């Protein structure tokens, strides 16, 4: 029983990573129609920046500063590289972000080295909270809480700010939003930054959870795609639920068939595509 | 006039390909690179059958490429030490997988289609990576090699003679390319182009669009798995990297670089890409950055590819 609970909890944590990644990807995909292959790369940058900043700013300072810096990089990248591609075949933005992912991975390896870096988290967060449930370390609970806050913040922004309202409207009909006098370029730019911010945040959390390697994002990006497909394109709540769902499913599977813990995600994806091609919460006829 | 140009182009391509082992060393290259280019050209042309002629973006072709490679390697290593049998198994494996996955994704379009092909492609990567007892996991399938071709009256040593192997690869390439050209000229191929140009109109004309996309997908994956078998034979080795999504990206960039809307474009893309990669990786450790930069530059400044550019020059 404890083992099962342990794996459900583990699945929830990894699912939270998937969900953070997938929410960022989904934001960008919904508004701009760009599949951001470099998302895992931005996650890695977030982690490495935090690693570099922790000696100066402390853990909390890095937690605030690093995702923000990554978002700034993301905004610059969108402005220079991705903006020219809107309105062209989605093939081109895919290829561009694909190349970008290569450059970021190699760049981080060049700057910070290829060997994985140790965890850097405050001692009091690393200790288990209870002796019976040894897996409930402070850091893990803290992570879940932080992800919950981030997700809540995102939904507040989307529902109660002007920017969020415009993003949601633009997702439905960008042309009309543009005609109503909203600067769509700025909107896409900020939206991209918001998505990358989430990737950067996931990166900082990865410092204490997954360890840092230049290709840390590689193992997260495929499940994030699956989370989006399972949850349904165009639906952010769907993406969130999709991410948690596949995380928990792979956690539970690893109790019984450890080697199938990845396969189960794909089985779920296939099942969703057969029964409901638009995903669990996707809109009809969007794609 | 344009017809003549096309024929002259075809003749030029075949003359260059057939004489490659004789002029390649003269320009400071080697025959193995020629085989490499032809194998990847076949993969990129197979992808282009779907991408350029049906207008459907797949980013998961590496899976079927890799399945072809694994099928061949495992057959030769464990079952029958024969090159043609190994190839046959590899091709069947890749095509069968594509035929099964196809119905799940043909209803989807655009980015959604691309995303699902990527995700399904990774299934085979994980299988190749984790089924250690069969595939050797990350270490790949080694300790086997391609077998000389036994034709009954004579045997061709494609194992030790790089030139013979090049011509063997070229022979397979020629058959596949001929088949593709034949298919594209047939009413079926014209239908695919019609779907690319205007799917809704094609549907109104009574064309079963989903079924045609499925067929195009399976045909494309069939040819890419042929390329995969040749890839395994070329290296006498296969590992999960042949199945990974970055491999799919390589095929796509080759097709784009050469020109998606032209038949020979992917061949040119493959040649440029591989020669460049060969050059860069022998000069710097950070070749990944350069390849990435190359992707970015092509997309921003060169989206029509070499042949697209040439064609536009001719028209204007």
Explain the overall architecture:
The complex is a heterodimer of chains A (287) and B (316). With 287 residues, chain A is mainly α. Chain A has a single domain (2-275), classed as ABC transporter involved in vitamin B12 uptake, BtuC, CATH 1.10.3470. Chain A contains 11 helices and no strands. Chain A has helices at 2-32, 39-82, 90-112, 123-126, 138-160, 162-172, 174-179, 184-209, 218-231, 236-256, 263-275. In chain A, helix 2 (39-82) packs across helix 3 (90-112), helix 9 (218-231) crosses helix 10 and helix 9 (218-231) packs parallel to helix 11. Chain A starts with a helix and ends in a 12-residue tail after the last helix. With 316 residues, chain B is an all-alpha fold. Chain B has one domain (31-315): ABC transporter involved in vitamin B12 uptake, BtuC. Chain B is built from 14 helices and 2 strands, in the order H-H-H-H-H-H-E-E-H-H-H-H-H-H-H-H. Chain B has helices at 2-23, 31-51, 62-79, 83-105, 110-130, 132-135, 162-185, 187-197, 199-204, 209-235, 245-258, 265-281, 287-301, 305-315, and strands at residues 149-150, 155-156. Chain B has a two-stranded antiparallel sheet. In chain B, strand 1 (149-150) and strand 2 (155-156) form a beta hairpin. In chain B, helix 2 packs across helix 12 (265-281), helix 3 packs antiparallel against helix 4 and helix 7 packs across helix 8. Chain B starts with a helix and ends with a helix. The mean pLDDT of chain B is 90. The interface between A and B is large, with 42 and 42 residues.
Which key phrases capture this entry?
heterodimer; A: 287 residues; mainly alpha; ABC transporter involved in vitamin B12 uptake, BtuC; globular; B: 316 residues; 14 helices
CATH architecture of chain A: Orthogonal Bundle
CATH topology of chain A: ABC transporter involved in vitamin B12 uptake, BtuC
Alpha plus pi helix count of chain B: 14
- Which outline of chain A best applies? globular
Note the main sheet of chain B: 2 strands, antiparallel
Q: Report how far the terminal alpha carbons of chain B are from each other.
A: 15 Å
How many domains of chain A? The number is: 1
What is the count of distinct domains of chain B?
1
Strand order of the largest sheet of chain B: 1-2
The biggest beta sheet of chain A is recorded as:
none
Tell me how many strands of chain B there are.
Answer: 2
Q: At CATH's second level, what is the architecture of chain B? A: Orthogonal Bundle
Q: What is the CATH first-level class name of chain B?
A: Mainly Alpha
Largest interface: A-B, 42 and 42 residues
Would you tell me the overall average pLDDT of chain A?
A: 88
Helical coverage of chain B, percent range: over 70%
